[in-house]
Amino acid sequence: MLKITHLSKTYKGGKKAVDDLTLTVESGEIFGFIGHNGAGKTTTIKSVVGILDFDRGSIEIDGHSVKDDPMACKSITAYIPDNPDLYDHLTGIQYLGFVGDVFGVEGQLRRQRIAQYGDAFELTANLGDPVSSYSHGMKQKLALISALLHAPKLLVLDEPFVGLDPKASHTLKQIMAELCAQGSAIFFSTHVLEVAEKLCDRIGIIKEGRLVVSGPTHEVIGQSSLEDVFLELIDHE
Ligand SMILES: Nc1ncnc2c1ncn2[C@@H]1O[C@H](COP(=O)(O)OP(=O)(O)OP(=O)(O)O)[C@@H](O)[C@H]1O
């Protein structure tokens, strides 16, 4: 579903943020992308979702090139940044209506999904309120509901668990598993290694722009824990 091949990105000023990175995420898989601050996770994610141009390599989503066929990629992808910027002047339901229109989600299905995910994230009662009145966590929940509205084939999340309360985190984990069981793929970054260890089918560890480890979670961890593997790699490699 997601194929990143030899991706490299150098920012103006000369910082090489991603260096020859290759990875794939298959349908039905949850891929956890781990790395210390400044390792290159967000740069990779922004390249995948088409909001950051890259210098070398290729990215394909469901066989479509992100550079050559961006609309085909975007129509089947949902992306939530680490700090979602929503339209404050809209109400929650107006925002979801707007996103539903952009992705062409028809009325009945739209209502059903808004009810399903609104209830799951306990936001239904607040959907009539302006987004400007939402707390940080409520905005995150609204962003998540909007991302799920068109049942994306690829869900890309940057630090999705930061700011969510324990119940919402649990709900999100359940929904991620359900989405994958239905054949979608999920690519997400996190610093919460316990979550990654339990939730992910595959793990990739990025250090200074290079993917230093990638594979099935049980192979990456072995007899150890993800925290031990991560600290070992970050300190010694
Ligand atoms: N717009 C930019 N211009 C110049 N350098 C940048 C820019 N954005 C990021 N960088 C640099 O690129 C490197 C990778 O940054 P990136 O945001 O991808 O890291 P990250 O792994 O997502 O970090 P974090 O966990 O802190 O969010 C860092 O050294 C950062 O300073």
Automatic annotation (TrEMBL):
Q: One Pfam match, by short name?
A: ABC_tran
**InterPro entries referenced in this protein's UniProt entry, alphabetically:** AAA+_ATPase (IPR003593), ABC_transporter-like_ATP-bd (IPR003439), ABC_transporter-like_CS (IPR017871), ABC_Transporter_VariousFunc (IPR051782), P-loop_NTPase (IPR027417)
Q: Which UniProt keywords apply?
A: ATP-binding, Nucleotide-binding, Transport
Q: List each copy of the ABC transporter domain by range.
A: 2-233
Q: What molecular function terms (GO) are annotated for this protein?
A: ATP binding; ATP hydrolysis activity
Which named protein is this? ABC transporter ATP-binding protein
Q: Which organism is it from?
A: Neobittarella massiliensis
